[in-house]
Design goal:
single chain, about 375 residues, alpha+beta, Pdz3 Domain, four-stranded antiparallel β-sheet, two-stranded antiparallel ribbon, 11 helices, 10 strands, about 20% strand, elongated
Length: about 375
């Protein structure tokens, strides 16, 4: 229960950090902010401080700040003229709309710096640590056990592909399901060639994956703070790239069809499964299984996904507001917001659908580690 509540609290804090980025940027640039709320829906509590109303709303699924003049469709009180978003130059608009995204990426970066500085780097070696006797959930002997692989064997190549790293080993095995392959290893300094028929397993993707049945040697290497800072930067860049792949996988038409089927009980592959507040709580409740460090890393990844999603140049996302400001800067014309309303409505409907499906899946198909 503590882990679940901690994860939910962290979620709220990160949403607040995103909105606080917009809030403080607007305030610093003299733009009026009329509201800063946690949650959506009916108002539960609020207080007026200066020109801004702060408060809580009933649905704790996010938050928002209301910046005066964000839309040309908004009626602005004459006394606020000169302090509206729409009147500001491009660079100030950019700072306001991108500051929330920057806050999430900054949080993610600091999380990873702390993790690497405290825990060091995990290095997975292309060396056998454990040989599985049987395939999970069956009484079938694993291919690795059949060919006599042993702890300490180092992979040199699989199916003719050189395996300098553990991901090389994984990739070579995964792409040859059900096939007979040669595996070259080094055992006690001696080179040996073994032949294995890889098993074929369903991992939830469109194609089956090869399976050998070994676990690698995992080593933890200490790094200093400055090295951790550099490693964290590379990690954020790499995860950002993966985040966009994930977002594409979730929102492409074939995935949306699978999600619709999931509403009616069909299994949904992990790679396209969205996670709701319920799922986040489920992850937190399994802290004793997956470890605190893994949970913290999950929070770093969450911030990156939140930031990456908001970069997309679609209204009502931050990236959409930036795209409009950029268009107006380049063309010297005011964007016709009326023409963009259908796009914004479609994005909102998609977000509502994904939110509904994620909650349902997290209830009927709970996340397990």
């Amino acid at each position: 229960m503590t882990g679940a509540l901690s994860m939910l609290a962290a979620f709220v804090v990160f949403i607040l950090a995103h909105e606080a980025g917009h809030f403080f940027a607007a305030k610093a640039l003299g733009i009026k902010v009329s509201e800063f709320f946690v949650g959506f829906g009916p108002r539960i509590w609020s207080i007026q401080k200066g020109e801004t109303e702060y408060g809580l709303k009933a649905i704790p699924a996010g938050g928002y700040v209301r910046i005066v003049g964000m839309s040309v469709l908004e009626d602005v009180d004459p006394e606020d003229m000169g302090r509206t978003y729409r009147e500001k130059p491009f660079w100030q608009k950019s700072v306001v709309v991108l500051s929330g995204i920057a806050a999430n990426f900054a949080i993610a970066y600091l999380i990873f710096v702390g993790l690497f500085a405290i825990n060091g780097m995990v290095e997975i070696q292309p060396i056998v640590d454990e040989v599985r006797a049987e395939m999970d959930g069956t009484d079938q002997i694993a291919p690795a056990a059949l060919i006599g692989l042993k702890s300490g064997d180092e992979f040199l190549s699989v199916a003719g592909e050189v395996t300098e790293t553990w991901p090389d080993v994984q990739a070579a095995i995964a792409t040859h399901p059900g096939e007979e392959v040669e595996i070259v290893i080094s055992r006690s300094g001696q080179r040996r060639t073994l032949t294995a028929t890889l098993a074929s397993v369903d991992t939830g993707g469109s194609e089956p994956s090869g399976y050998l049945g070994v676990a690698p040697v995992i080593e933890r290497v200490d790094v200093g703070f400055f090295s951790a800072a550099g490693i964290a930067g590379r990690e954020v860049v790499e995860i950002t790239g993966e985040a966009y792949k994930t977002l594409w996988n979730v929102f492409k038409p074939s995935s949306l069809v699978q999600l619709i089927k999931g509403v009616f009980g069909a299994p949904v592959p992990d790679e396209i499964r969205p996670v709701s507040l319920v799922g986040i709580a489920q992850v937190g409740s399994q802290a004793d299984v997956i470890g605190v460090s893994t949970l913290i890393a999950f929070l770093g990844v969450f911030n990156i996904i939140l930031g990456a999603f908001n970069v997309l140049p679609l209204l009502p996302l931050d990236g959409g507001h930036f795209a409009i400001a950029l268009y107006e800067k380049i063309t010297k014309k005011q964007a016709d917001i009326q023409k963009l309303v259908p796009i914004a409505a479609t994005v909102i409907l998609l977000m509502v659908f994904i939110g509904f499906v994620s909650i349902l899946l997290d209830i009927v198909q709970p996340i397990q580690f």
